[in-house]
Amino acid sequence: MSNHSIQYLQRAQIDTVKWDNCLAAAPNGLIYGYSFYLDRMAVDWDALVLNDYEAVMPLPWKKKWGTSYLAHPPITASLGIFGTAVTPALTGLFIQAIPPRFKLVDLLLNPANFLPTSQLQSIRNNYVLDLQSTYADIYSHYRNNVRRNIKKAQQLNCRYAVGIQVEEVIRLAHWQIQQQATNIGEEDYAHFKDLFHYLLSNQAAEACGVYTPNDELVASCVWFYSKARAYYILVGNHPNGKTLGASHYLIDRFIEAHAGQELILDFEGSDIASLAFFYSSFGAVNEAYPALQFQRLPWWLQWKSKGYPKINS
């Protein structure tokens, strides 16, 4: 990739086949970067493309007050630059190539996109667990509190189920997220449901849950699969499940079912200390990735940028 010709393309100009082939070939090609994912969750997106799709960078955009800006889509953990040889230098060239018409940039990149030093990037945390070992070996690295909660769920006759209706997970997730005052709306859940059924039809998605003996769903999640990676993508938990060890049991059942496979369990977070502790309790390790934030706003709108660094390009 010595010849760095990066062009800006609108969505209609993008060759979807070449785009998805780039993601499939890229060592850092995460599921969020595929066209089928972006078309549903980002809705409006353009891109930067290196040469003949040697590397790509999706640019999910929105417009407000007549100003175009890049904003990270909901239920999408990481985007950024995807390609076969992504270096810090190439990452810098892509960032410089973001068109000036986007006055505010707020994106989560991927672990291959760190710059050597930059005030534009901050570090985010994600926990991943390699499932290639035997279940017994993985279980031996669980913290004691995880083992206790698994046994509690078993003793209370909680039932683990695979292939539940995605609407059940969405219902619990919607209720749970409402308590956290996030920006995920009804339309986002509708788009996610469409994405789930698309992947399900390609045998790349499933919904799982843990039920009480009274058939109350107390822990649930959606798994997406892509390139030997399983994404713990949408989680719906009921408060009643906390005292039952339901979430611990849910993840443990998945791990046992997939132990010994060439598969990475991607927990999709978290910067929240309690969640980071929860994920690491299964033996997961941190896979840090950068957040990109900067603004080119006129002075009368800079209060909207939350203190993001200002660049002049």
Radius of gyration: 20 Å
How many structural domains are formed by the residues? Answer: 2
State the end-to-end CA separation. Answer: 25 Å
What is the CATH C level class of the largest domain, in words? Alpha Beta
Helix content: 25-40%
Largest sheet composition:
8 strands, mixed
CATH homologous superfamily grouping of the largest domain: Gcn5-related N-acetyltransferase (GNAT)
Show unreliable segments. Answer: none
Summed up, the helix count is 9
- Based on Cα principal axes, name the global outline: globular
Q: How many strand segments?
A: 15
Strand portion: 25-35%
Looking at the structure, the CATH topology of the largest domain is Aminopeptidase
Structural class: alpha+beta
Order of helices and strands: EHHEEEEHEEEHHEHHEEEHEHEE
* Name given to the CATH architecture of the largest domain: 3-Layer(aba) Sandwich
Report on the architecture of this protein.
The protein is an alpha+beta fold and 313 residues long. The protein has 9 helices and 15 strands. The protein folds into 2 domains: 137 residues, Aminopeptidase, CATH 3.40.630; 160 residues, Gcn5-related N-acetyltransferase (GNAT) (Aminopeptidase, 3-Layer(aba) Sandwich). The strands form 2 sheets. Strands 1, 2, 3, 4, 5, 6, 7 and 15 form an 8-stranded mixed β-sheet that branches. Helix 2 packs antiparallel against helix 7. It is globular and about 60 Å long. The relative contact order is 0.16.
